[in-house]
Amino acid sequence: MIAASLALALLAVAQSSALPTPVSPEAVFAHGTDAAHVARALATATVHPGDTQVFSGDFEQATHLRGLPKPLQARGSFLLIRDLGVIWHTTEPAASDLIMTRDALVQRSALGARVRTDTRRQPIVRSWTRVLPAILSLDVEQLARHFTMSLHEAADGGWQIGLRPREDIGATKAIVIAGHHELEHIELFEHGGDRVTLDLHDVSRSMLPADSTQRARFE
Amino acid sequence: MIVAGLWLAWAAGSRLSFETDIKAMLPQTTPDAVTRHALKQVDAILGRRSLYLIGAPDFATADSAAQAFIATLRASPAYADARFTHAPSHAEFAQLYGDAQRLLLTDRDRHQLEQRGAQAYADAEWQRLYSPEVLTRTQAFASDPLQLYGHYLAQLAPAGGALTARDGKFVLERDDGIDLLVSVTLADSPYRLDLQKEAIPPLRSAIDAARAVSPSVTLIGSGVLRRAAATSERIRLEIIVIGGLSLTGVLLVFMFCFRSPRPLLLVLLSLSAAMLVSLATVATVYGRIHIVALVFEACVVGLATDYSILLFSDRYRDAQPWNGRLGLRRIGRSIGVAMASMLLAYASFLVPASAGLRQMALLSISGLVAAYLTVVLIYPVLLGTPAPAAPAIAAWRDRLGRLRAPRRPTLALLFAAGGILLIVGGQRLRFIDDVRALRTEPPALLSEESLVRERLGTVTDTRFFLVEGRDIEALLQNEETLRGRLDVLLQRHVLGDYRALSQFVPSAQRQRDDAALLAKTVYADGSPLATLQARLGFPAQAFAQQQAAFEAARATHIDLATALNSPLGPRLRDLWLGKTGHGVASLVLIGGVADDGALSSAAAGLPDVRLIDRDADASQVLQHYRHLALFGLGGALLLIALLLTMRYGMGAGLRLMAVPFGSGLLTLATLGAFDVPATLFTVLALMLVVGLGVDNAVFLYENRDARPMALLATSIAALVSLFGFGLLSASATPFVHSLGLGVLLGTLYSWLLAVLVTAAPRQPSPAP
């Protein structure tokens, strides 16, 4: 009973409709800091993110390509299970699943076709299968392994964390993640000028292990 | 002696060094200059470099430990370099390829485009752009829309992509932590003992320094240095232990038999003279002494104590007054004949074109001559007037003196047993020449090595392909043909990895072909890429821009000379051999070979590609020299037979020959019967056995009128030999063991045969 009430207490459902504090990426990266500082700031602003076991919700992705007048818009839902990885289930413009685990990146189309990439052989894919779950679970210790960090805190309790990769993660040169009580926005800047944003909605974060239905989705 | 000592001191100080690489005993197997150059370069890459994985639960700890490790090694002059291994950055690749990056295709992509065109690529890209998978792109959409260049870069990732470059340093993720890769380069060959001596202590300090950072730090390494050093250390210890025990045995026998320190001191004098003169001679002629030749020499010098023992034992002929001059007059002839025979025998080893065998012969000959000269020149002066035999020795002598030729049935039984042994053993006798089997490395280091291999997925093999071409273009094309075959082996998982110049710089022909393929499948009007761009919402001119960029790329060309001078140059120069007598040459390094046969067939039918396998070559050479040594042994036996028949007549000469000949055969047969494989070193042991046999036979024959004394002398000599050589067979180094076991058996057989062959015919009632 205690566990259940604790779970209820910890089950934070962020319904924040407020947009992240509008600060330019340059301003975010101007405040370089260390992991401990970021962890303290997040601990104050959010609900024990480092202990996340399950994190799920909806996402909207906008891919801005150089020379393309309008960004490419996609939406769907995601499910992070701490010891397994993350599933991105895209519903629009076409249904597909992207399953990121420690060992593989698997793309599953609506028709059931699977493309599997072994992370042992692909350093960049390997990095992303570690980086994206770390971002979603706001695992500062993990993030510090892959990035140098900067932090901007706003008066309204909003925060923005700037991440510069310490390793080759492909075209991405910088990442800004932002939120208030919860992680709300991820923006990725590429070397060639392309840019990808991920907005998260209706998220729920749990400190309890995933149930078998959730785990089954990774199979 | 003093002169020889000074001479050795000079030789040791100025040029004497020890060589522990077994392959250095063998002649250069490849006369051709290109191969020599290639081997030298591979030695520099593989022999001198070692790789260490410094691990910890987290990057920061591993990093501090690795930095402490590197700093310690950099402070030592034995190391040319110690550094983190770095991944080439995208910027470095961009600098090398420039616009031409649009023209680069992996073999897989080429095949796909040829077979199925670009539609599948465009479809996959569309799906990727609408999912977070878009983040795994390596290039902007505009410069690499179908990620063909991304694939190209991915296949160049070292260790099959297992490494991640964090803060510019290669790291390897493990479930329970992280490893940092550190590459260490020695200043010289790891097989040089003096370098090992200089390089091992700083390496130990460096390991300690890394571990001092945190108890959680782990360190494993691969590379020749520690294995070679461990082998030398073991050989050194064995020389101390076996040599020490052997010396103690000899001392005990001497003290028991001769009861005075004088003979002992004289023997030490003779041994030192033999050692000094032979080492100084070889140091002068060769500079570098191979450790195996040294072991062989230690035996021969031990054999030289025979002369001293024979002379001392002459005192026990009777109780009459005796001095050294008298003794020398009586036995000088027999040790002269014995030495002459052995010099002849060893001289036959000077002939084969092997520096190792010649070193052995030279060490033995100079050592024997020195020992002989000490005996005949110095002993008579210094020997004084020793006392006659003590009662125990006299009793032993008289008991030996009563030994007669065995009765007929006993003799028949011995003959039958010998015959059966020869037949059974001869049939089962095996020779092994595989250097891999002759090389012993400590299991702890080998398991570390396999752990490194397991974590990295592959470790560069000592085998490699040597590719030639009349010019750079031909060379690159030849490499590409070879790579086509190697790719098949990669897919079959019989090969783990390879590294070739043409992976970085395709041949001009391939660049043209690929450009033509891309023009047709990707950049043609209405191609899947054009459709994709339209579908994504790009304006019409966007595809025209792609086409223009592609046409601009087609006007460029990637060439090897530029690549070698680019920031990637140092990586490529490992593989580049440069100009040769008939064009240019390069190396293709391989790793993770699971099927030797498949590997050698990869070069079949390609005239400009050769698989260089030094271990196989060295094994062949060992075999070759085993044959040569056997022929040499045969020659030596013939020469000795000639000498003995000239000296003693046909009948007696041939009977005496039965001792060295028979003991050699019986030794081999015994090894065969007990299923112990024989090696080149067994054959070398037989050379000693032949020497012992001749010594025994000649001495017993020449002194047949003083048979009790002669038997006593040869028995003491055999006992001394057994102490030394019997212990050599306890060595863990296969070739020393082989040598020791051969001599151990040979000593026993040659004593037995010598006693039998020279025995006086059985008389009806022997005098008590």
From TrEMBL, chain A:
Residues 1-18 form the signal peptide. This is Outer membrane lipoprotein carrier protein LolA. GO terms for biological process: protein transport. Monomer. It comes from the Bacteria. Pfam families: LolA. The keyword Protein transport applies. Keywords: Lipoprotein, Protein transport, Signal, Transport.
